[in-house]
Amino acid sequence: MDNSDALAAFSALSQPSRLAIFRLLIQHEPEGLRAGEIAQTLTQPQNTISTHLSILQRAGLLTSERQGRVITYRAALIQLEALMQFMLAECCAGRPDLSTPILSGLRPCCMGAKPEG
Q1: Where are the domains of the chain?
Q2: In sequence order, what are the residues at sequence separation of 6 or more whose Cβ sits closer than 8 angstroms to the Cβ of residue 38?
Q3: Where are the beta strands (DSSP E) in the chain?
Q4: Spatial contact of 36 and 77, defined as CB atoms under 8 Å apart
Q5: DSSP for 42-62?
Q6: Are the C-beta atoms of residues 73 and 35 closer than 8 Å to each other?
Q7: Which of 24, 60, 64, 65 is nearest to 44 (CA)?
């Protein structure tokens, strides 16, 4: 990931509805959701959700799969991983001890455990 890709992702996520959509889709991995389900869950008009989905997809944060008239949207977890790696690539001036709290805070979400606190 380069600076322009990271900026596109951050720009797409800097709007509250788009951030909510992305977080919702992460929660529904790997099955994904249809635009209507996203709109219903977030109580927003479907045409507004469709606009947000397009922006997120152009930023590489979503994938979509069409089956007939139904489009299922999924979070692009590979792009999320690349964005996180981009942010942490030069973390803590080469001192792994400083990055431990950051990385340990990420583990619970992926291991099914709840973070402390």
Answers
A1: 1-117
A2: 21, 24, 25, 49, 53, 73
A3: 33-34, 62-67, 70-75
A4: no
A5: HT--HHHHHHHHHHHHHTTSE
A6: yes
A7: 24
Look at the pTM and tell me if it is higher than 0.85: no
For residue 87, the model assigns a pLDDT of: 85
pLDDT of residue 48: 95
- Architecture of the CATH domain 1-117: Orthogonal Bundle (1.10)
> What is the largest distance, in Å, between two alpha-carbon atoms of the chain?
51
pLDDT tens-digit profile of 33-78? 999 999 999 999 999 999 999 999 999 999 999 999 999 999 999 9
CB–CB of 49/71 below 8 Å? Answer: no
Q: Quote the CA–CA distance of 52 and 61 in Å, as a whole number.
A: 11
